[in-house]
Amino acid sequence: MSASTYLLFYVNDPQRSAEWYAQLLQTAPLEASPGFALFALADGTRLGLWKQAAVQPASQQAAGATELCLMLDSQAAVNTEFARWQTLTLPVLQAPQDMDFGFTCVTADPDGHRIRIFHPAA
């Protein structure tokens, strides 16, 4: 099967979430409507923000059980991006630190979806 990769987050307010992700990702959405917004990530993956009340079949799952994880080129890049997050006053769920898999930190979007950036361990 040949397929493109889409990741969908169910959100309360796609327009508000699109503004938040536009700041985080430093790019405008490919499309945006009252019920949906779509972003292109650097590797070609698409991130969709879908109004939870419109999802079919309905989902009652809570945000935060999974993560959007983005690999950066260096530990310095993780520190630089974390510093930018702080200027945007994004919530800090995990400050930069070394873990078994690499150097990492975590924030969350307005709906509680976790976003992790990391540089893999050598």
Offer a few descriptive terms.
alpha/beta, 2 helices, 37% strand, 4-stranded mixed sheet, 2,3-Dihydroxybiphenyl 1,2-Dioxygenase, domain 1
Give the arrangement of secondary structure elements.
Blueprint: E1 6-11, H1 14-25, E2 31-33, E3 36-40, E4 46-51, E5 67-71, H2 75-87, E6 94-99, E7 102-108, E8 114-120
Parallel strand pairs: 1-4, 5-8
Antiparallel strand pairs: 2-3, 3-4, 6-7, 7-8
Protein name: Drug:proton antiporter
InterPro entries: Glyas_Bleomycin-R_OHBP_Dase, Glyas_Fos-R_dOase_dom, Glyoxalase/dOase/EhpR, VOC_core
Pfam family, one: Glyoxalase
Kindly summarize this structure in a few lines:
The chain is of the alpha/beta class and 122 residues long. It folds into two domains: 1-61, 2,3-Dihydroxybiphenyl 1,2-Dioxygenase, domain 1 (Roll), CATH 3.10.180.10; 62-122, Roll (2,3-Dihydroxybiphenyl 1,2-Dioxygenase, domain 1).
Write up what this structure looks like.
The protein is an alpha/beta fold and 122 residues long. The chain has 2 domains: 1-61, Roll (2,3-Dihydroxybiphenyl 1,2-Dioxygenase, domain 1), CATH 3.10.180.10; 62-122, 2,3-Dihydroxybiphenyl 1,2-Dioxygenase, domain 1 (Roll), CATH 3.10.180.10. Helices cover 20% and strands 37% of the residues. It has helices at residues 14-25, 75-87, and strands at 6-11, 31-33, 36-40, 46-51, 67-71, 94-99, 102-108, 114-120. It has a 4-stranded mixed beta sheet with strand order 1-4-3-2, with helices on one face. Strands 5-8-7-6 form a 4-stranded mixed beta sheet, covered by helices on one side. A hairpin with a 5-residue loop joins strand 7 (102-108) and strand 8 (114-120). The longest helix has 13 residues, at 75-87. The radius of gyration is 15 Å and the shape is globular. The chain starts with 5 loop residues before the first strand and ends with a strand. The relative contact order is 0.21. Pfam families: Glyoxalase. It comes from Undibacterium luofuense. This is Drug:proton antiporter.
